[in-house]
Amino acid sequence: MNEGAPKTVVRGLKDVAAAETRISFVNPMGSLYYMGYNIDDLVGRIIYAEIAFLFIHKRLPKQKELNKFSKALVAEMKLPDAVVDSIKATPRDCHPMDVLRTEVSHLGEYDPDGGEFSEAANNRRAIRLMAQVPTIVATLHRSREGKETPSPREDFGFATNFLYMFRGSPPDMDETEVLHRLMILHADHGFNASTFAARVTASTNSDMYSAVTTAIGTLKGPIHGGASEKVMNMLNDIEVEERVDEYISGLLDDHKKIMGFGHRVYRVEDPRTKHLRGIVENLCHRPRTSSLYNRCLLIEQIVHDRKKIYPNLDFYAAVAMDALEIPKEYFTPFFASSRISGWVAHIIEQYEDAVLLRPSSDYVGEYGKKFIPIGER
Ligand SMILES: CC(C)(COP(=O)(O)OP(=O)(O)OC[C@H]1O[C@@H](n2cnc3c(N)ncnc32)[C@H](O)[C@@H]1OP(=O)(O)O)[C@@H](O)C(=O)NCCC(=O)NCCS
Prior knowledge:
With 377 residues, this protein is mainly alpha-helical. It folds into two domains: 21-220 and 328-353, Orthogonal Bundle (Citrate Synthase, domain 1); 227-323, CATH 1.10.230.10. The chain is 54% helix and 3% strand. It has helices spanning 39-42, 48-57, 63-75, 81-88, 96-107, 119-144, 158-167, 173-186, 193-202, 208-219, 227-238, 244-253, 273-282, 289-307, 313-323, 331-353; strands spanning 24-27, 31-34, 37-38. Strands 1-2-3 form a three-stranded antiparallel beta sheet. It is globular, with a radius of gyration of 22 Å. The two termini are 30 Å apart. The mean pLDDT is 96. The structure holds coenzyme A. The site of coenzyme A has 17 residues, from α15. Residues 12, 223-224, 227, 257-264, 307, 309, 312-314 line the site of coenzyme A.
């Protein structure tokens, strides 16, 4: 027995490669690839459903294939009645991410493929989850507003239906364009914490609903997907551009983290930021957006000057979602509604890898303590 033999601990698993992947590559030098395509070549030129297809089929679709795939997604958006009833019965003050986590787990009880674990069944589940996660989010929002959720329309694409069902009115052309860009930019990002968590669950050959439930619980945390809501809290607290310097400098002086900044992998600016900054700049004619954007630019400058760190995905995404009239407590559920395409692709890839993800640890506790029965303690 090698009691106490120290093991090398890589704190936070920083730079540890836990598996091979072909889904996305996060290049520390500031680029991001989806299945080999640089996102700079995709954003603004494709729609979200193409990315979802790419992740499942490992290639981009032809037009006819895309039409069929989009129709299949829209057709799967309907939730089981019991899930709709359960969403409507949730306490009004619990966070939408709590409801999303519970209801994805609940969906697993109504899986039409039952216990079947074939590749075909998992592909069908992947499509259902990509379709139904957004519907849970839309249904919750509508029911909390005291309104019915409209049924998806066959003449709308998948992403358009999502915003239509969420808001109750169809997005205009500019909003639809923003929506696709936002969803594409959120779709995948290497072995981020929620994706890794999903893969750990999948690595035990557990089902896809369990793995996605794990991912949602992980995404919720404020230093992961929960950051965008915190960004909006900060921007609202700051109120006016004149207060930015005092507010941000105060946080940094107190060694507090600025939400929406910093990244585990990127050593330079996150390659998604320039797209999001551009999206927000183009939306500055909208009420609120221009003032929020100006606050963001000032924050970015101060944080970079003081800490040499850059905004991440969540910083400008918060303002873009606000411009789409998405309330801030739904920012992370919106993130999940796009990241679901990456999660299911990673879960399938993990099933294919067929290895249990089970690290070891360096035990630093005691040995040989004298046991005292409960009555004598
Ligand atoms: C994303 C994040 C968790 C990465 O963390 P990490 O790789 O473990 O890096 P660390 O937290 O150890 O930070 C390294 C250094 O940068 C600083 N730093 C990192 N993010 C910072 C932030 N948002 N604000 C201020 N300082 C920050 C740390 O204080 C630390 O400085 P030090 O070396 O002087 O102590 C971290 O940057 C963070 O918490 N950001 C805010 C939350 C957020 O926006 N999350 C979304 C991520 S996409």
